[in-house]
Structure formats: structure tokens, C-alpha cells
Amino acid sequence: MILLSFGHGYSARALTKLLLPQGWRVIGTTRTSEKAEVLRSEGVEPVLWGEDLSGAIAEATHILTSAGPNADGDPVLETYGAALAPHLGDKEWVGYLSTTGVYGDHGGGWVDEETPLSPSTRRGQMRVEAEAAWQALCPAVNLFRLAGIYGPGRGPFEKVRRGTARRIIKEGQVFSRIHVEDIAQVLEASIRRPNPGAIYNMCDNDPAPPQDVIGYAAELLGVPLPEAVDFEVAEMTPMARSFYAESKKVSNTRILKELGVTLRYPDYRTGLEALLAAGE
């Protein structure tokens, strides 16, 4: 089996760790020679973005795209769409990593894969457009809508240790999240049990206010609770503030029932405990 991975980043690298021991060949695109060497050291065949991929596209049995859209649209389709088009119908599996931001704000209410898309940010709207572009080119594409990603190197512990973490308080605010190792196992499960055209939310079982996560990290470290700051007066980057424009609980029923996945980290507590035990 051969996986061609566009934008071979954090989530795709976690999947690679599951596939390579099974004898898979993984080809991954990246934008710098430094990153290419890192991928090579992990057993991935790196290709610099923009290089000819016609051979890899033709021989790949599976395709995963993790590259986010920009103002010009989906970068994979912009750069490689013409080369991909004749081959996508022959692939055993095609996956696109999207975001739960496509659902927009639901005032803390629940959403699932049947919820109408109503993004409230330009970033979310670009994701909706990218999803539609992939579906138009490849009706069999599986869409994976990811909640907030955390895992090794992406936990809250370093900020808590430095004393720079804050508990931003916004009444009713709730986020869903998922550990990167669970992203990997959901993708692997979908590859093993393909359902062409299916859409899956990727998140754990416990949507929670962001201040609770920071507070639990402090508790695990045995340090004082970080300062609570009201959202309205908190100093934040426009990007960080935009995440608070949406509040929703995301249902993961489909990945649990249809794909038969048992999450390794069903809530942020087990995830943070594992990261700390691993030396984060």
C-alpha cells in the first residue's frame, strides 16, 4: 500500500507511525529541505512542494491531504488538481482533513455531521469552499472535521510552567478537542473500512470550557491556578480571539459506531495525564 500525503504535518506524521510498521510506503510533501530531512529520518519519502508528483499520484493507492486553504483556494487542487483528476476515481481511499469550524457558532449546543454548515469566520468559510472543491473533483473523498488538536509538543504544560498561561473566561464558551494519536487511529480505521463519501467529526467525548483544561494542567503540575481573565478585556491576537467567536459541542458518535473506534484519550484529563507521564 502507498499513501501520498499532501502537507505531511502533525496529524499525518502520527498516522505514518501506524502505517510504516505494517509495510506501507508513505510519500509526503513538505515545503523546506529541513523538514524533508526530518520526514526522511521518520521513514517517509519526502517531496518538496511544487515538484512533479505525476508518478507518485499514479502509483499511490491512498491519498491524504492536510493542507489548509488560503485566499486563493485549496493549495493542493491549485497546484496538483489537473494531475490528480484522472486518478482519484481509482484510489482505494481519499481523505481530506478539515475542521469543525465549518459548523460555525451554536451557542454551546451540539452539532453532528448532518448539521448545516454556517461558518462564522472567513477561515471557516474557506474550509467550506475547500471541502466542496474536493467533493466536486472526487465524490468518494472522506471529509474529516477535526476539533482542536493537542498531543506531544502541543500541550498546555509549557505555558503553565512558565507562568504565561491564562484562563480566559467567556460565559458559556465550550470547545471540543482531540488527541493527535486518536486522529491517527480514526484515519487508520477509515482506511481499513472505507465508506466513500462519508463525513466524520473527529473529537473526544468531553467538550469542555478552555479554562478547565488550563486549570487541570496546573493541577497536574502542582502549580498555582493561572490567572482568570475576562474575555472582553483579555489581550489576545486576532487569531486567538477568533476561536472564541464560536461555541459548540461536537458529536463523535459516527467514528465510535461506524468505524468501531475506542478512543485512547476520551477526554482532556486522560490526554493531559498521558502527556505528563511521557515527559511533556
Quick one: how many beta strands? 13
Looking at the overall shape, the CATH architecture of the domain at 2-149 and 179-203 and 251-265 is 3-Layer(aba) Sandwich
Total number of helical segments? 11
The CATH homologous superfamily of the domain at 2-149 and 179-203 and 251-265 is termed NAD(P)-binding Rossmann-like Domain
- Secondary-structure-based class equals alpha/beta
Name of the CATH first level of the domain at 2-149 and 179-203 and 251-265: Alpha Beta
Task: Strand order, main sheet: write it out.
Answer: 3-2-1-4-5-7-11
Q: What is the residue-averaged pLDDT?
A: 95
Question: What topology does this entry show?
Answer:
Elements: E1 2-6, H1 10-19, E2 25-30, H2 33-41, E3 45-48, H3 54-59, E4 62-65, H4 75-84, E5 93-99, E6 110-111, H5 122-137, E7 142-146, E8 148-150, H6 157-162, E9 167-169, E10 177-179, H7 180-192, E11 199-202, H8 210-221, E12 228-230, H9 238-243, E13 249-250, H10 253-257, H11 268-277
Parallel strand pairs: 1-2, 1-4, 2-3, 4-5, 5-7, 6-13, 7-11, 8-10, 9-12
Descriptive account of the structure:
By secondary structure, this protein is of the alpha/beta class. It has a domain at 2-149 and 179-203 and 251-265: 3-Layer(aba) Sandwich (Rossmann fold), CATH 3.40.50. The protein has helices at 10-19, 33-41, 54-59, 75-84, 122-137, 157-162, 180-192, 210-221, 238-243, 253-257, 268-277; strands spanning 2-6, 25-30, 45-48, 62-65, 93-99, 110-111, 142-146, 148-150, 167-169, 177-179, 199-202, 228-230, 249-250. It has a seven-stranded parallel sheet with strand order 3-2-1-4-5-7-11, with helices on both faces. Helix 8 packs parallel to helix 11 (268-277). The relative contact order is 0.15. Keywords: NAD. This is NAD dependent epimerase/dehydratase family protein. InterPro entries: NAD(P)-bd_dom_sf. It comes from Thalassobacter stenotrophicus.
